[in-house]
Amino acid sequence: MRVRARRVLSFSQRKRRKRVKILIFLAILCVLGWGMRRFLLTAPYFEVKEVAVQGNSGLSNDQILGWANVPLKRSIFAVNIKEISRAIASKSQIKRVEIRKILPAKVLIVVEERLPFACLSRGKELFEVCDDGVIIKKTIDSMNLPVIRVASSFSLEEKLSREVNILLMAQQLGLPFFQLDVRNRHTLVGVLESGIKIYLGKGDHLDYLSYLPSLLEVYRGKEKGLKYIDIRFNEQIIVGEN
Questions:
Q1: 20 to 30 A Cα–Cα from 125, which one of 9, 41, 46, 198?
Q2: Which domains occur in the chain, in start order?
């Protein structure tokens, strides 16, 4: 009985020693990890020495670098990519942004700018609008782009997804809309370059736009021209002649 007790005690001691060795090993790893981290964060070799910008055309490098605010002479491993991306992506002029760390000491900012697809007219103000419906910035010239007219109460925080989709659909059909009037939310009116008004419906009725090229072709050779086309109603298209 005494021998068995000594064996149990010996096994317990070995188990305790094994735990101590594991703890010592983990402690050594922690110290090495801390030392490596400190080295990477303080070594001059890894300090940011260059921040480059690619993909911009309308925006200057200085403007984008100002938004990014990447501190030089800080370790490249301490640069917060997500924070920089959020800061740049929050600007309406930016469609996409990617931040890359290039070891040992370079940060590369790759951007895709929003380009004007249409213009928003609110009262006497004019704004550029991207093809994703986001308002880019204020402008003084419509640049011969389609103009979306909205009510003076329209908030610039809103996206113009529906309006841009209508213009895109019309563009694909070869319908040269130069204006889309949405000041009355219940009556959307598109105006072709020829001056013909298109009264637009919602939802499925917008599919009737696909019939308009053929209809316009029919009236092209007629003595009486078209004044308006109304596609707001189900299974019918109403035309008004001059």
A1: 198
A2: 44-113 (3.10.20.310), 118-241 (3.40.50.11690)
